[in-house]
Design brief:
1880 residues, 43% strand, 143 strands, 3% helix, mainly beta, globular, 8 helices
C-alpha cells in the first residue's frame, strides 16, 4: 500500500519541483515550450543522440524517488520521425533494481535478469479528416509496474526508484497512483452513466473540444492489459464507439515462454475508433496478432482493486511451469481473419477469458471471433539428446533409484534407467549450472548461468515450477538441499569475484509462499564443493583449494570454522561427503593429489589421512595405500559414500569402488585397457560420481559428455547418455534404418538411432573438423565434408571399420561403418553437401567457391565435374547452403556473390537461372543478400530464399519471379530453411528460436514460435516419415508434429516406417512397446588411426538386395543393374546330402562360407576331399575337391570360381595391413650394371616398416634376426650390426614367417601395377636366396604360417581378398584354396597337432582339421560362436598355450581363453586386442595403446576345471611397458624373459622382462624424410622428417644418438654448421619448420639454443654461410632471409624470387673476383618458377651482389601434373665455375652452366624429371632420383655411363653424398638406404 501522501495520486513533476532542477537533472537540449493542443507548458527533449539529451529524476543515481504507486501515467507525445527512450528503474521487494525501457528504437523484446526492453511501434492507418498525424498524438501511457515485474521476471514490485526521459519527445507530466484511471471518461460522464470505472482526475485529463471524442485526438495505452481479455478486447477497452482508424501503437516483446502475458505484450494495439462502430463492423488497418497457449492455465484468485473492479492479475501456469507456456516453450503468432460476432453468440461454456465483461456491453463493444493456424501447438518436444552444457558434474539419483536427473543445456531431464523414458522440465532460458534434490525427492532446485543466476524450485512429482527467483551471485556453481528440503544453499561468485554462500529458506515453497534469503556471506577461501549435513540442516561443510571448513547456521547468520589440516594444508580438495558412524559423523574429503581425509565433524579434526591411487604404471596391480612420500597421485575429482562403500571418480577416467577402510579396490572401471575387471566405458576424466540410494549402482559423468552407471552386483557398466561436447553444426536423416547423423565442433560425426535416441557409433577427426553431412537416399551410405576440403563416404551396412590415415589430418572411426577413399577436389572447407533424391548424384561446395559433382549411384563414387568460383565464398557451412530439388533436376545455391542465387541443371551443371536478391527490395536502405535456400514441392516448383533483411522470398524456380514474401521473421536472418515433404509446414530458424509456418496458406500464413535451445539453432529437418522434427544447436531436440497427416503429393515421403522414439516429454506419457532398453554395458570399439587412401575416388560399399544376407555371385547369368551381380537364390554354399536334416554349421551363424576357388591338385595324389562331418560333432562341415570342384546342386548353390561383388571394407581391427599409397611406378627399362661393375653397394637400411604386420622374425637359439623395410627383407646380425638385404619383392612387404627349423623364410608383398596377384617369396635362410615364387592372392596377404612339421604353408588373404590357401613345401604347389565369406584376422597352427589350424574373425572362432587318409586329405571346418561375455563380436589375435588352451584377443580389448577339448570359452579379462604370445605360464599382449604387458597365466589350467564359473582374479599382470607406437610385431624367447617388438613408429625394441627395460634396436622416421646433412668430420649425420623430428645418427654404426622433437609441425629443411676457427667445439644444426620458425640445436649440449621466426610461411630451404655465422633461409613464398644465429636477428630479406617457393639454397666459400663481384661467399637460390640466382656476399660487411640470374622455360608436361618438379641447382664440386641444374628445362635433362662464360656447357638427358640430385665431391658422379619410377640412377659425368639401382619402395625424393664421397644416402618416403660408393 502506497504512503498516505501519495494518495490518491501523485504529480511527480510538481512534487520534485522539476522546474527548479534541484532534485532532478537535465542534460542536452531540454526546454520548456507551450503546446497548442494542451494549451499549457510542456518539456521538450530533443537531440540526435537519445543518451545525451534527457530529463532524470532524481538527480543522482544514489537517490531514490520512493514512489510506491502501482500505476505510472506518462503523458507524452513522440516527436515525428524521431526516436525516444523511456527508462524506469524499479526496485523489488528483495532490493534488486530492474531497468525497464520503452522505445520506438527497439525492434524486439529483450530481457535479462535485470533489464526488460519493450519496443514501441507506431503503425499508420488512415486518419479521419481533421485528425492529426500519428506523430502529433498526445499519449497517456499507463504502466502497471506491479504486473510488469510479476509477469516477466516473477518479482514483487516495491517502489519506483528513478525515471529518465530521453530524446525525442514532449512530456507534460508524470503521475503515480494505486488507482486504474480511464483517461477517456471524465468524472461527470462516469457519474451520469453510472459506469463501474475510475474516471481520470481533472489535473491529469487532456482537454477535449466540445462535442468531440477523446479518442479522436489522443491515444491511451495500458500495459500490460487486463489478463481476462483477449488482445482484441484489450484494444477495445479504451475505444469509444467510433470507427477504428488511424495509428496503431503496439508493444511487441520477443515471443517469450509465457502464456497470457505474452498475449498482452505481443498484441497490445491501440486504435482510433470512429463514430460508426455501433452500426457496422469495425475496420482495422491490419489483422491483429493472436497469441495462443498450448496447455491449460491454472486459476489464480482475483484481487480486488481500489475501485471495486475485479482484476485477474495473471494466469501463467501450464503443464510443467507456471512461467512457461507448454512443454515445448511455444508461442504462436498468427495473421487472423476478424469477423464480427454478436454478444449473444457467445457460448455459455466459454472460458472467462473469452467472454465479454459488463464494461464491454455497457460501452456497446462487439467481440471478434478469430480463426488461427491449427493445430496449436503443432509441435511438442518429445526428447533430447545431450548432457551437460555449462557443467558435466550434475547428475542425481531419484529417491527410489529408478531414474536419474541431469541437465541438457537449458533443459532438465529425468531419465528412467530401465525404460529410457524421458521427462522434461522446461523453463530455463540459459544453461543449467547446478541441480539439487531434497531428501524426500519432492523438491528439485535448479540454477541457470549468466549473471545474475535465476533459480527455480520444482515440484519433482508433477514437474510444476513452484518458485522463480534471482540469486545475489552471478553464477551459481553449486546447490545443496537439506534433507528436509527447508534449507537450500548456493555457492558462487559475486560481481567482484568474491566467493559467496547464500542460504534460502524454502519451507513455504509449495504452500503459496516464496523462497526467502536467510543469510548471505562472503568468503575469502576457495569453495569447490558445498554440502548440507543430512543429520542437521543448520550444519554444512565446504572444501576447496587449501581449505576444509565447517559451517553453521545460527541466529540468522552463517559462520564457518576452518579444520586444522596440518601437513595437508596445501592440498587442493575437490569433493566431500558425510557418513553416519558409530561414534558420530564423519566427513570424507578427497583431493586432486589422491589424498582422502576423514574428519571428525564433532571435534573438527582430521582423524585419518590416506594416500590412494598413487602414480604407477597404468594397468599395474591395483593401487594400495602408500605413504605421503610416494610421489604425486592421480587426481580424484568426486566421491560418494554409502553405508559400506565409497565410490570415487578420478581424472584418469577410472571409477573405483572401495571399502570404507580403503584396504583394497573392490571394483574399478575405466578408460581403455587399464584393468582386467570391467569393460571400459569412460571416455574422459570423470567429473562426478553418485551412489544410488540402495547402494547397488554408481552413477558417473565424464567431462566428454557421457553419463552412465555401474551395476555393482553384475559388474556391468551401462551407458545412459552420449552427447556431443560442442555445438552441433548439421544433421542428416536416413529413412530405411531410422538413423540420424550429426556433425559437431567437437570434431566428431555421430550416428544415432531415432527409435531409442542412443548413439550407434561415432567418427573422430582430431585434426580436421567435419562441416556437413548427407545421407544417400537409397543406399546405406552417408557423406561427410571436412574443413580440410575432404569429402568422405561411409557405408553403414558392413560390419567392418576402415581406418584411414592422411597427411593433412587423421580420421579415427569407431563403430560399424566403412570409410571409403578420401576425395580432395576442394581447397577450402566444405560449406554444403547435398545428394539428389534419386541417389544418382552428389554435390559439394567449399569456402573457396568451388562446386563438385559426383556420380554416387555406382559402388565407387567418382568425381564428374569440378567448377571454380561459382559458390559464394563468404558463405558459412549450413545445411541450406546447397539444395537439390525433389525431382533431382535442379541445384540451387548462393553464388557467385552473396547477392545472387544460382539454379543449375544437376546433370550438366548448366546455369539455368540467376536471381539478383538486391532487386527484391528496392526500397530498402541497404543491399539485401541471400542467406539460405530451399526448394518447395513440385508443383508448383518454388524456390525459397531467406535474405539478410529478415525476409523469406518465395520465387518461381523456373523464371525467378517473386511469388510472395514472408516478412515476419526474427530480426536475425534465417540461416536455416526446411520444408515438409507435403509442403504444409515451413521451418525457419534464427538465433535460438524455431518458427513453424503454415506454408499452405497462400495469404498471410501464420506461424508458431518455439524456443528451448540455449544456443543458436544450426539446423532443422523433418524426419523421413514427416511425423517428427529435429533441431540441433547446443543439443539434439526431437519434436512430435501434432498435425494430422494428409495425403502426400507425388514424390513426397510417405509410407516409410516411422522412427518412433521412446523418450516422451511431460507427465503421463506412455512407454512405447518397441522400445530398446539402451546400452548393453559393453565397451565401445576402439580402432587405430586411419590410413591414407587414393585421392581421386570415393569408394562406396554396394548395398545388397532386399532380403539378402550378404552373399553375392559374380556369374554373368545373374547380372543385376549397375553391373552389380547378385545371386539368384538363397545363399547355400554346401548342398546337404539326401536324407540329412538340420542346418549346416554356417547357417546357424547366419554367414555363408564359400570354397569356390578351384585348387591346384598337383602335389597331392588324389586332391583334397571334402565330405560332411561325422554326425557326432556338431557344427562340422567337410569339403572335398578332386581335381575339378564339385558342382553345387540346388537353386541356392554357389558356382565355383565366384568372387565377391561387395567392395572390400576395412574391419574394426588395426591388425590388417594397408599398403601406403604411392603414385610412383615400378621401374622399366633399367640400365642395371653388370655383376662386379656396380659403383654402389647397399650397405645399410635405416628404419623398420611399422606399417607391416608380423614382419619380424627372431630365433634366439640360432641368432637369426630379420625384419622388413619397404620391399626389402633385412637380415641383421645383432652382435656386429652387419646387414644382408634380400631384394626381390616389387611392393611393400606385409608379413613374414619363419619355419620351425629356421631354414626357410616366407615373405609376402602386395599386388603391383604390373602383376594381378600378390607375390609370396620363399627364401633359403642359410644361402639368402629365393627358392620359390608363389602367387595366388588378389590384394594383400594378411598372415603366413608354417605347420608344426614344416610340410605345409598357409597363406591368409586380407579383408579384400578373403582367401585361405594351403601350399605344399615339398613341391611349392597349391594344395587348396578356400574363399571366406568374411575377413579373418589371424591364424595359428596347433603346436601339438599339425593337422589343426585355428582362425579368428567376426563372431566366431574357426577350426580347420586336416586329415590325410591314404592319398586323400579331408578338410573339416568347425565354427564356435563367441560368447556375449567376451564383449565385442570380433576376435583379432590368437595363440596357443598349454594343452588344450587357446588364447584369443578381441577388438573390445579382452583376452578370452578357450578349452579346445570342450570347444568353449571359460575365462575372459580386460587386456589388449593386438599381438598375443604365450609360452608356459606367461602371456605377452600388445595393442594399439602402445602398451606391452606380461601376464601370469599359470593358474588358468586350474581355472579350466571350473568352466564358466572361472574368474579372472587369479590372472595378474607381472610387467608393463609403454612403447612409442602401436605394437604390430613381437617375437619372444620360450622363457618369455626377452624378446623383440616392432611398433608403428618404425622402431624395433629389445625387451627384457627380467630387468623391466626396453632398448632401441632399430629406429626410423615415421613420415617422409626431407633432408640428410653431415657433420664436417662425417662422424655424424642428421635427418629431418614430416613427423617434426630431427634425428642425429652415428654414421659408423647407423644408430640413433639424439632426437629433437617438435610437435604438430613438419621439419622441411636442415643444415649442419661448417667448422668455425673461432669456436671449433661449436656444432649447430639449423632446422626449418612448416610454421615459419627456424630452430638452432646444439649437438654437444643436446639442447635447442635458439628459436627464430624469420618467415610467415613454411621454410623450404636453409644453409649456413661458409664461416657458420650467418644463416640463409628460404620459404614457400619465395623470400630469402639472412639471419645471425649469435643474435637471433634477421638483418636482410631478399624478395627477388617472390611468388615461387625456394627449392634450393647452397653456400660455399670462394673468392669470385673473376665473376665481376666481390665477396667471400658465393651462394645460390633456386625457386619453383625455374629461376636460379647466384650471389656474392660478405655478410660481415653487409654486402650482397647479384652474380648471375638464370631463367628457364617451364616444363610442358610432368609425370604428376598437380606436382611440378622441383628446381634443383648446385655448385659443381670438381669445377668451381660450373653450375649444375635439373628440373629447369623443358626437357628431361641435367644442364651444366658456366658462370664464367655465361652459357650452357653440357647436357645429360634423363628419362624423367628429377626430384633429387647430389654431386659427389670425389669422382665425377651424380646421383639422381625420379618422381615417376622407383629407381636410383648413378651417372658418371665424365664418361656418360649410367647405372640404375632398385631397392626403394617409392620414388627417391632425396640423394646426398657424404663429404668423403664414400657413402651415398638416399630416401624414399620414410626409408633411408645407405650405399657404399666404390671407386670414389
Amino acid at each position: 500500500m502506497a504512503g498516505v501522501w501519495q494518495q490518491p495520486f501523485l504529480n511527480v513533476f510538481r512534487h520534485f519541483k522539476v522546474d527548479e532542477w534541484k532534485r532532478s537533472s537535465k542534460e542536452g537540449d531540454v526546454a520548456v515550450v507551450t503546446d497548442k493542443t494542451l494549451k499549457c507548458t510542456v518539456y521538450r527533449v530533443r537531440g540526435p543522440v537519445s543518451a545525451g539529451n534527457y530529463i532524470q529524476l532524481p538527480k543522482t543515481s544514489t537517490q531514490s524517488l520512493g514512489l510506491t504507486g502501482r500505476y505510472l501515467y506518462v503523458l507524452f507525445r513522440p516527436l515525428p520521425a524521431k526516436h525516444f527512450v523511456i527508462h524506469l528503474d524499479l526496485c523489488t521487494e528483495g532490493s534488486q533494481v530492474i531497468r525497464v525501457s520503452f522505445s520506438n528504437f527497439f525492434k524486439e523484446f529483450k530481457s535479462t535478469a535485470t533489464w526488460l526492453q519493450f519496443p514501441f511501434i507506431c503503425e499508420t492507418g488512415t486518419p479521419r479528416k481533421g485528425v492529426g498525424s500519428p506523430g502529433a498524438r498526445w499519449t497517456c501511457l499507463q504502466l502497471d509496474l506491479h504486473d510488469i515485474l510479476l509477469v516477466y521476471l516473477n518479482r514483487r514490485y516495491s517502489h519506483l526508484k528513478s525515471i529518465r526521459l530521453c530524446a525525442s519527445l514532449l512530456v507534460r507530466n508524470l503521475y503515480t497512483s494505486d488507482l486504474c484511471f480511464d483517461p477517456a471518461v471524465t468524472v461527470a460522464e462516469a457519474r451520469c452513466a453510472k459506469l463501474p470505472i475510475t474516471p481520470i482526475p481533472r489535473e491529469m485529463a487532456f482537454p477535449v473540444p466540445k462535442g468531440e471524442s477523446w479518442h479522436d485526438h489522443y491515444v491511451h495505452i495500458r500495459f500490460p492489459s487486463d489478463s481476462s481479455k483477449t488482445p482484441c478486447e484489450a484494444v477495445q477497452k479504451s475505444c469509444s464507439p467510433s470507427e477504428a482508424a488511424g495509428p496503431v501503437l503496439q508493444l511487441l516483446p520477443h515471443p517469450a515462454a509465457f502464456s497470457k502475458p505474452v498475449q498482452d505484450s505481443l498484441a497490445l494495439m491501440v486504435q482510433k475508433c470512429g463514430p460508426t462502430a455501433s452500426r457496422q463492423a469495425p475496420s482495422v488497418p491490419r489483422p491483429l496478432p493472436e497469441v495462443s497457449v498450448s496447455c491449460e492455465r491454472s486459476k489464480v484468485s482475483s484481487v480486488g482493486g481500489p475501485s471495486g473492479r475485479s482484476q485477474e492479475p495473471l494466469a501463467w501456469v501450464e503443464a510443467t511451469d507456471k512461467h512457461v507456456a507448454s512443454d515445448s516453450l511455444h508461442v504462436s503468432v498468427h495473421q487472423t481473419t476478424v469477423e464480427p460476432t454478436a454478444p449473444e453468440d457467445a457460448s455459455p461454456q466459454e472460458s472467462p477469458g473469452r467472454k465479454q465483461n459488463q464494461q464491454e456491453v455497457a460501452l456497446g463493444k462487439n467481440r471478434f471471433q478469430q480463426r488461427s493456424f491449427l493445430p496449436d501447438p503443432v509441435l511438442r518436444l518429445k526428447g533430447v539428446i545431450g548432457f551437460g552444457g555449462h557443467s558435466t558434474k550434475w547428475a542425481l539419483w531419484t529417491r527410489d533409484g529408478a531414474a536419474v536427473v541431469y541437465p541438457c543445456h537449458a533443459i532438465i531431464v529425468v531419465l528412467c534407467v530401465n525404460t529410457r523414458e524421458q521427462r522434461l522440465f522446461l523453463g530455463h532460458t540459459d544453461k543449467v549450472s547446478a541441480l539439487a534434490l531434497d531428501g524426500s525427492g519432492s523438491l528439485l532446485a535448479s540454477a541457470q548461468a549468466r549473471p545474475h543466476s535465476m533459480l527455480r524450485l520444482w515440484d519433482f512429482q508433477t514437474g510444476e515450477c513452484l518458485s522463480l527467483f534471482q540469486s545475489p551471485v552471478h553464477t551459481v556453481c553449486s546447490l545443496s538441499f537439506s534433507d528436509s528440503g527447508e534449507v537450500l544453499c548456493g555457492v558462487g561468485k559475486d560481481r567482484h569475484g568474491r566467493m559467496t554462500v547464500v542460504v534460502w529458506g524454502t519451507a513455504q515453497v509449495g504452500r503459496g509462499g516464496e523462497a526467502v534469503i536467510l543469510t548471505k556471506v562472503h568468503s575469502d577461501v576457495d569453495i569447490q564443493a558445498f554440502e548440507v549435513a543430512f543429520f542437521d540442516e543448520t550444519r554444512m561443510a565446504s572444501c576447496g583449494r587449501g581449505s576444509v571448513r565447517l559451517w553453521r547456521l545460527r541466529g540468522g547468520g552463517l559462520r564457518s570454522c576452518p579444520v586444522d589440516l596440518g601437513e595437508h594444508h596445501a592440498l587442493e580438495f575437490t569433493d566431500l561427503a558425510f557418513r553416519q558412524a558409530q561414534d558420530g559423523h564423519i566427513l570424507y574429503v578427497c583431493s586432486r593429489s589422491g589424498h582422502i581425509l576423514e574428519i571428525d565433524h564433532q571435534r573438527m579434526a582430521v582423524r585419518c589421512a590416506r594416500r590412494l591411487l598413487p602414480t604407477q604404471t597404468p594397468g599395474g596391480p591395483l593401487p594400495q595405500k602408500q605413504t605421503f612420500s610416494s610421489g604425486p597421485g592421480i587426481a580424484i575429482s568426486s566421491l560418494s559414500i554409502s553405508q559400506a562403500k565409497c565410490a570415487m571418480g578420478s581424472e584418469d577416467g577410472y571409477l573405483r569402488l572401495w571399502p570404507l577402510d580403503f584396504s583394497s579396490v573392490l571394483l574399478e572401471a575405466g578408460l581403455g585397457d587399464h584393468q582386467p575387471t570391467l569393460p571400459a566405458e569412460h571416455e574422459g576424466p570423470i567429473s562426478s560420481v553418485s551412489v544410488s540410494p540402495d547402494g547397488l549402482r554408481v552413477l558417473s559423468t565424464t567431462s566428454s559428455g557421457h553419463l552412465g552407471f555401474l551395476d555393482i552386483l553384475s559388474r556391468e557398466y551401462s551407458v545412459l547418455v552420449r552427447s556431443h561436447a560442442a555445438p552441433v553444426l548439421a544433421l542428416a536423416t536416413e529413412s530405411s534404418r531410422g538413423q540420424l547423423a550429426t556433425v559437431s565442433q567437437d570434431h566428431t560425426v555421430r550416428i544415432w538411432d531415432l527409435a531409442t535416441l542412443q548413439q550407434l557409433y561415432d567418427f573422430a577427426s582430431p585434426e580436421e573438423a567435419p562441416c556437413a553431412v548427407a545421407f544417400h537416399p537409397t543406399q546405406p551410405t552417408f557423406f561427410c565434408g571436412f574443413s580440410s576440403g575432404a569429402v568422405r563416404s561411409f557405408s553403414l551396412e558392413t560390419t567392418e571399420v576402415l581406418v584411414e590415415h592422411r597427411r593433412s589430418g587423421t580420421v579415427q572411426l569407431r563403430g560399424k561403418a566403412t570409410a571409403s577413399r578420401v576425395c580432395r577436389c576442394h581447397r577450402g572447407a566444405i560449406t554444403g553437401l547435398a545428394a539428389s533424391p534419386d541417389g544418382s548424384l552428389l554435390f559439394s561446395s567449399c569456402s573457396r567457391g568451388s562446386l563438385a559433382q559426383y556420380h554416387s549411384s555406382a559402388p565407387q563414387c567418382r568425381i564428374l565435374r569440378v567448377t571454380a568460383n561459382v559458390v559464394c565464398q563468404e558463405a558459412c557451412p549450413s545445411p541450406s547452403a546447397l539444395v537439390v530439388s525433389g525431382d533431382s533436376h535442379l541445384l540451387a545455391f548462393v553464388g557467385p556473390s552473396k547477392y545472387t542465387v544460382t539454379v543449375m541443371d544437376t546433370a550438366s551443371l548448366d546455369e539455368l537461372l540467376r536471381v539478383d536478391i538486391r532487386t527484391l527490395d528496392l526500397a530498402g536502405s541497404c543491399l539485401d543478400s541471400a542467406v539460405a535456400v530451399c526448394f518447395g514441392p513440385a508443383p508448383p516448383g518454388h524456390l525459397l530464399v531467406s535474405t539478410s533483411s529478415n525476409m523469406v522470398a518465395v520465387l518461381d524456380a523456373t523464371s525467378g519471379r517473386l511469388v510472395r514474401e514472408l516478412s515476419c521473421v526474427p530480426p536475425a536472418a534465417c540461416s536455416v530453411l526446411a520444408l515438409s515433404g507435403d509442403g504444409r509446414f515451413l521451418l525457419t530458424a534464427a538465433d535460438r528460436a524455431i518458427k513453424v509456418w503454415d506454408y499452405s496458406a497462400q495469404a498471410g500464413p501464420g506461424c508458431q514460435v518455439y524456443i528451448g535451445h540455449s544456443e543458436p539453432v544450426r539446423a532443422v529437418a523433418f524426419t523421413p516419415d514427416q511425423q517428427q522434427l529435429l533441431s540441433v544447436g547446443d543439443a539434439i531436440f526431437l519434436w512430435d508434429v501434432l498435425a494430422p497427416s494428409e495425403k502426400s503429393p507425388p514424390g513426397s515421403v510417405q509410407g516409410s516406417p516411422r522412427a518412433s522414439t521412446t523418450c516422451e516429454a511431460g507427465l503421463g506419457t506412455r512407454q512405447l512397446e518397441d522400445m530398446v532398453s539402451g546400452a548393453n554395458g559393453l565397451p565401445r570399439q576402439q580402432v587405430p588411426m586411419p590410413s591414407q587412401a587414393s585421392p581421386p575416388w570415393l569408394d562406396i560399399c554396394a548395398r545388397p538386395p532386399k532380403d539378402h544376407d550378404g552373399a553375392f555371385s559374380m556369374s554373368d547369368e545373374s547380372r543385376g543393374p549397375e553391373g552389380l551381380r547378385q545371386a539368384s537364390g538363397p545363399p547355400v554354399l554346401v548342398q546337404k546330402e539326401a536324407g540329412r536334416a538340420g542346418d549346416g554349421a554356417w547357417g546357424a551363424m547366419g554367414g555363408p562360407w564359400d570354397l569356390g576357388r578351384p585348387p591346384n591338385p598337383r602335389g597331392w595324389p588324389s586332391g583334397l576331399r571334402t565330405d560332411l562331418a561325422a554326425p557326432g560333432r556338431q557344427g562340422m562341415v567337410t569339403y572335398r575337391t578332386n581335381g575339378e570342384p564339385k558342382a553345387p546342386a540346388g537353386p541356392g548353390a554357389c558356382s565355383t570360381g565366384r568372387a565377391r561383388a561387395q567392395p572390400p571394407t576395412r574391419p574394426d581391427s588395426y591388425r590388417h595391413f594397408t599398403a601406403r599409397y604411392k603414385v610412383s611406378l615400378l621401374p622399366k627399362g633399367l640400365s642395371f650394371p653388370a655383376v662386379g661393375d656396380e659403383r654402389l653397394h647397399l650397405k645399410a637400411v635405416m628404419g623398420y616398416n611399422g606399417n607391416g604386420r608380423a614382419n619380424l622374425v627372431w630365433r634366439p637359439d640360432t641368432g637369426f634376426f630379420a625384419y622388413t623395410c619397404g620391399r626389402l627383407v633385412v637380415v641383421e646380425d645383432l652382435h656386429s650390426g652387419v646387414q644382408q638385404h634380400w631384394l626381390g619383392h616389387p611392393e611393400e612387404i606385409s608379413t613374414l614367417a619363419l619355419s620351425h627349423d629356421a631354414q626357410v623364410l616366407a615373405s609376402a608383398s602386395g599386388r603391383s601395377s604390373t602383376a594381378s596377384r600378390c607375390q609370396i617369396r620363399v627364401w633359403d635362410v642359410p644361402g639368402g636366396s629365393c627358392r620359390q615364387l608363389l602367387s595366388h592372392h588378389d590384394t594383400a596377404v594378411q598372415a603366413l604360417a608354417f605347420s608344426p612339421d614344416d610340410r605345409l604353408l598357409v597363406t591368409l588373404g586380407d579383408y579384400g581378398d578373403r582367401t585361405l590357401a594351403l601350399w605344399s613345401m615339398a613341391t611349392y604347389e597349391l594344395v587348396s584354396s578356400t574363399c571366406l565369406p568374411e575377413p579373418v584376422y589371424g591364424m595359428a597352427f596347433n603346436p601339438w597337432d599339425a593337422g589343426e589350424l585355428a582362425c579368428v574373425g567376426q563372431g566366431a572362432i574357426t577350426l580347420w582339421l586336416l586329415q590325410q587318409r591314404g592319398g586323400d586329405v579331408s578338410l573339416q571346418v568347425h565354427r564356435e560362436p563367441i560368447p556375449e561375455e567376451v564383449g565385442g563380436w570380433e576376435l583379432t589375435s590368437l595363440c596357443y598355450g598349454t594343452t588344450p588352451l587357446l588364447y584369443c584377443g578381441s577388438n573390445a580389448g579382452q583376452v578370452c581363453v578357450w578349452d579346445m577339448c570342450a570347444s568353449c570359452c571359460f575365462l575372459a579379462w580386460e587386456a589388449d586386442d593386438g599381438v598375443l604370445l604365450c609360452s608356459g605360464a606367461r602371456l605377452v599382449s600388445g595393442s594399439n595403446t602402445r602398451r606391452l604387458r606380461l601376464w601370469a597365466v599359470g593358474a588358468v589350467p586350474e581355472l579350466r576345471r571350473k568352466g564358466s564359473g572361472a574368474r579372472s582374479s587369479s590372472v595378474f599382470m607381472e610387467r608393463e611397458l609403454t612403447l612409442d607406437g602401436a605394437v604390430v610385431s613381437a617375437v619372444f624367447h620360450e622363457s618369455m624373459d626377452m624378446g623383440v617388438v616392432g611398433t608403428t613408429a618404425g622402431t624395433l625394441w629389445y625387451v627384457s622382462w627380467a630387468e623391466g627395460t626396453s632398448t632401441r634396436l632399430v629406429s626410423g622416421h615415421q613420415s617422409k624424410v626431407n633432408e640428410v646433412v653431415f657433420s664436417p668430420s662425417e662422424s655424424h649425420c642428421a635427418t629431418c622428417s614430416d613427423d617434426g623430428s630431427v634425428r642425429v645418427w652415428s654414421v659408423a654404426s647407423m644408430e640413433l644418438l639424439i632426437q629433437f622433437q617438435v610437435l604438430s609441425q613438419s621439419c622441411l629443411c636442415l643444415s649442419w654448421s661448417p667448422p668455425s676457427c673461432e669456436h671449433p667445439e661449436q656444432q649447430w644444426v639449423a632446422a626449418g619448420y612448416s610454421d615459419g620458425t627456424l630452430r638452432l640445436f646444439s649437438i654437444p649440449l643436446i639442447a635447442m639454443e635458439l628459436k627464430m621466426h624469420p618467415h610467415s610461411a613454411a621454410l623450404t630451404a636453409i644453409a649456413f654461410s661458409a664461416d657458420g655465422q650467418t644463416i640463409l633461409s628460404g620459404d614457400r613464398d619465395g623470400l630469402v632471409a639472412v639471419s645471425r644465429p649469435c643474435t637471433g636477428m634477421t638483418f636482410r630479406v631478399l624478395n627477388d624470387h617472390r611468388g615461387a617457393p625456394i627449392c634450393t639454397i647452397q653456400s660455399t666459400r670462394r673468392e669470385y673476383g673473376d665473376f665481376g663481384a666481390e665477396g667471400v661467399d658465393l651462394w645460390l637460390a633456386a625457386s619453383g618458377d625455374q629461376q636460379v640466382s647466384v650471389w656474392a656476399s660478405n655478410w660481415l660487411q653487409d654486402r650482397c651482389e647479384l652474380v648471375d640470374w638464370l631463367s628457364f622455360p617451364a616444363p610442358a608436361l610432368t609425370e604428376v601434373p598437380s606436382c611440378p618438379p622441383p628446381s634443383l641447382a648446385a655448385f659443381c664440386p670438381w669445377d668451381e665455375a660450373l653450375l649444375v641444374c635439373a628440373g629447369l628445362s623443358v626437357h628431361h635433362e641435367v644442364v651444366f652452366y658456366s658462370l664464367c662464360q655465361k652459357q650452357v656447357m653440357k647436357k645429360i638427358p634423363l628419362p624423367f624429371f628429377a626430384v633429387s640430385m647430389s654431386l659427389s665431391p670425389g669422382a665425377h658422379l651424380m646421383a639422381i632420383g625420379f618422381s615417376a619410377e622407383r629407381v636410383l640412377r648413378l651417372v658418371d659425368c665424365a664418361s656418360g655411363a649410367v647405372q640404375d639401382f632398385a631397392g626403394h619402395d617409392d620414388s627417391v625424393q632425396l640423394c646426398r653424398f657424404a663429404p668423403s664421397a664414400r657413402l651415398l644416402f638416399t630416401a624414399a618416403h620414410n626409408e633411408i638406404l645407405v650405399w657404399e660408393v666404390t671407386g670414389h
